[in-house]
Amino acid sequence: TAGILAPGLGVLAHLERLETQMSKSCKQSEEPQSVQAQEGALGTKIHKLRRLRDELRAAVRHRQASVKASIANVEPNLAVEMSEQEVLEEKLENVKAVLQAYRFTGLSGKLTSRGVCVCISTAFEGTLLDSYFVDLVIQKPLQIHHHSVPVFIPLEEIAAKYLQTNIQHFLFSLCEYLNAYSGRKYQADRLQSDFAALLTGPLQRNPLCNLLSFTYKLDPGGQSFPFCARLLYKDLTATLPTDVTVTYQGVEPLSTSWEEQRASHETLFCTKPLHQVFASFARKGEKLDMSLVS
Amino acid sequence: MDTELAEVRALQAEIAALRRACEDQPAPWEEKSGVQKSFQAIQQFSSEGWKSSKDLKSQLGHLESELSFLSTLTGINIRNYSKQTEDLTGTEMTEKSIRKVLQRHRLSGNCHMVTFQLEFQILEIQNKERLSSAVTDLNIIMEPTECSELSEFVSRAEERKDLFMFFRSLHFFVEWFEYRKRTFEHFKEKYPEAVHLSEGPSSPSMVIRSASQPGFELVIVWRIQIDEDGKVFPKLDLLTKVPQRALELDKNRAIETAPLSFRTLLGVLGIEAALESLIKSLCAEQNG
Questions:
Q1: Are strands A211-216 and A227-232 parallel, antiparallel or unpaired?
Q2: Quick count: other Cβ atoms within 10 Å of Cβ A241?
Q3: Could you report the per-residue pLDDT of A109-118, keeping only the tens digit for each?
Q4: Which residue spans adopt a coiled-coil conformation according to this UniProt entry (chain B) (predicted)?
């Protein structure tokens, strides 16, 4: 930077000296003098003014050129470096975002010092539920160091089948089991919380939520006997039961219409999620009430 | 003298203008904005800038390797993701300490030969007791679109707003798809004369023909189905094409019962062995 400063100062100083000389000679020329002396003085003055003007022209040209050069020298590099940084920052943001996005696949993870910690997210028909993690140690053989999978999920079985040969299959298989368990649990929870009015006794369930037993009535205040439902989910990767029995807890045999209802309920429980079946019961019940009123 | 005076005045005017021009274009070392700032920026950059650039590069490298690991681990490769958040909390809700947020997500990527583009919305409701999140809208675009087995499954996933089931089933479907392709390719390589793949290795059917027995054809149709629960399973069927005369000679009705026998064979030997035995049975006459 010192080199750039010196010539500039030099030019400025030089121009200032010329200026001072000019103003001095101008003042001198204002004093009364003989015409000849005046003419001579004018001539010199013009000569000097011309010199000053030429030097100023040169100085302006010189400055224009050097400003252009310095900008060209300084800013392109800076522009390149700054855009490189911007590009890096943008890439970093993008990669961070995509890493975050993996949780929407149901499977995401983070690298650990020993291997990877996989996070399995569960959901049932759009409602996001619990997450579980499996901490894997990358070595031969691959090992599960740590996990939050409930004890009644057959983790060891699934690991024995797939962990060593096909880790993707292991993870997705575990996903299936955990999502199904989460879904069954969700249905049972919703039944207990939203439709307690239709239940005539407590909901009986096992930790795995694949065996449910409950008694219910379509018309809670009515005289009819309750139905007793038993739902067995043999397929642990499914959220719908494989075996359903609905029985009638009365002494007298069922009338035809009630028998039809009982049979239809069995079908309903097999084909629709538990809380949705009860939601339809509740809606029908409302319709019944309306008919009573009118 | 007048002309000379005039010239003096003209020169003085020009000098004044040139002086002004000199002031308007300050030398680089004088300017405070623009280039001076650039200098300052470079100085700053030199002390901190290079370090942070290196930091950025190493951070990026670490995250990129994490990403590629995750992609290998899940078999799903996400390339783009963007998110928008909208706070729907009304003043009434704030008083009851309820917070409602709508998230709009967009992601795209691929799972082997299938590319997907998803747009979905998640509604988060936070009250004093808990936070509930639910997918309120799901739109899926998939390529290739010829996989008709997939399009039905996609509509079901969209209807149920089941994001995770979509990815899970997609993964298993692609696994089966690749396995079917590898198996067909393997047999095509091993028995080039006998095995024909009409639409290439990705086709859902394999035709077995014997040069020495023209008119006889065994067609194995291998479909990959996705059921209501999102479970993916293969469904194999055997179709036979035989000349009329052979049918007449077939007293034991072996040809009629072939499709059923094939099912049994599958159950006993598994897919690969069953297919191999079929090929060998048709081509055995060729050699013998």
A1: antiparallel
A2: 22
A3: 888 888 889 9
A4: none
